[in-house]
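Lecture notes, continued. The same structure-token format from the folding unit now serves as the input rather than the output. Read the line below as a description of shape only.
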């Protein structure tokens, strides 16, 4: 278990880091779309749950089959494409969102277990202008690609909410649930430290 686990919601989260035994198959993709009030019915299978979520401050009601991941619900039902599908097995962090403020891999969460939870995706960060974390990523050249960056930004926000003045070692330890496969981590770590300083 990594350092960004450990919240009261742990019982619902498959922890960050390699957990191949926890693999949850990504449901088949459907065309993405956005609806304000209701999602569509899940593709195939029977509807067994209606789950109430607050997503980026908006109340949503979604229909979930038992195997639907939070990632699938966000992307395929609610049209929130900022949360990315990478490995699907809890390794890469591309699917990171905040659940009640704690960073979590949405590919490893079953949506049906999240009734009444508050979800923040990258679309819910900043309101037309970058927030402090996003600005630090911009300033430090840490916006490396659209696949990993949303997850890194959300993880840094979770870290700073819990530890507003982290050391570099603490930043690196916290971010082990997020992986960049093609560049480096130096700029991201600088951005996390700068975001922390900017909020002092
Ligand atoms: S897609 Fe969820 S950790 Fe990789
Ligand atoms: S995965 Fe995004 S820059 Fe490497």
């Amino acid at each position: 278990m990594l350092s960004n686990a450990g919240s009261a919601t742990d019982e619902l989260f498959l922890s960050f880091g390699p957990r191949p035994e926890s693999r949850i198959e990504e449901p088949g993709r459907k065309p993405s779309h956005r609806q304000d009030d209701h999602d569509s019915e899940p593709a195939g299978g029977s509807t067994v749950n209606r789950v109430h979520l607050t997503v980026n401050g908006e109340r949503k009601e979604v229909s979930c089959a038992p195997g639907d991941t939070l990632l699938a619900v966000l992307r395929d039902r609610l049209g929130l494409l900022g949360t990315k599908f990478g490995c699907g097995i809890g390794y890469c962090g591309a699917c990171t969102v905040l659940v009640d403020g704690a960073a979590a891999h949405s590919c490893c969460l079953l949506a049906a277990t999240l009734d009444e939870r508050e979800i923040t995706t990258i679309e819910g960060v900043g309101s037309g202008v970058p927030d402090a974390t996003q600005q630090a990523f911009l300033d430090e050249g840490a916006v490396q690609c659209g696949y990993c960056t949303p997850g890194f930004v959300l993880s840094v926000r979770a870290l700073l909410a819990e530890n507003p003045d982290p050391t570099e070692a603490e930043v690196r330890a916290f971010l082990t649930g997020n992986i960049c496969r093609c560049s480096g981590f130096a700029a991201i770590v600088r951005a996390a430290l700068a975001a922390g300083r900017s909020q002092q």
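Point for the exam: The mean pLDDT is 83.
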